[in-house]
Every structure is written in structure tokens, then in C-alpha cells.
Design goal:
36% of the residues lie in helices and 10% in strands. The protein has helices spanning 10-25, 29-34, 63-76, 110-118; strands spanning 40-41, 46-50, 56-60. The longest helix is centred in the first third of the chain and has 16 residues, at 10-25. The chain is globular, with a radius of gyration of 14 Å.
Length: 126
Amino acid sequence: MLKAANKKTWEGFRNYVMLLTFLDTGLRLSELLGLTADRVNLIKGSLLVTGKGSKDREAYMGRTLKKEMARWLKMQGFHAYEEHVFITRDGRVSSQPTRFGLHSSSGPFSLFFFIGTDRHRAPVRA
């Protein structure tokens, strides 16, 4: 699934890091899209996210995600700490996954929508 993202393009690498973040941390989509650079701690290897009930929680990154997140932040070129980590190519922040090319029925992210909506009805097969 990680190989489906074309890491040689800006959008492809962004999608790869988003997918890796889902797999490594278990963040909800809303937490991922709301993540800002000031809440990414590469030294500690953690992400501070605001979850359900507006409660903050810390999610920890593995070695690979930590390395790729650092690469993504550098590639994106953050200047202000309040900027969102995952934005569209034209710099917009969106709460709509389709703005990122994430669709519930196709593409590398379809498994996450499947898990989130059907996990109690059908087994996930690798």
C-alpha cells in the first residue's frame, strides 16, 4: 500500500507521509488534517493532536515516520510554526479528504476508510 504513492512527486510524497502517519500512529483523519507544524516534535518523535471532545493527546512516531516527516517538513518549506502539516499544492488547508485525492472507494487510502467504516462487519485481508 505504501508503494502505491509516487514518492517522486510533491503530492505523492505528501500522500506517502500521510499514509505512513495513519499506519504508524493510528490518528483519525480529522486529527491528521488538523495537525500543525508546531505540534510535531521530531526530537521526541511525537505528534500532539486534538482528538474527540477537543482533548489533546500525544501520538508517537516510529523511526521511519520520524525520518520521512522531517523530510516532508523540509520539502514543504515551513516558515511559520502555525502552518498545517498537510496542505494542498496551492497551500490550502482542507477538512475534505478528496482535496488530497483521498477517496473512500479507490486509491491507497481506501483501506483506512474500509477499516473505519466496516471493521465490525468484515475482516481486513492483507
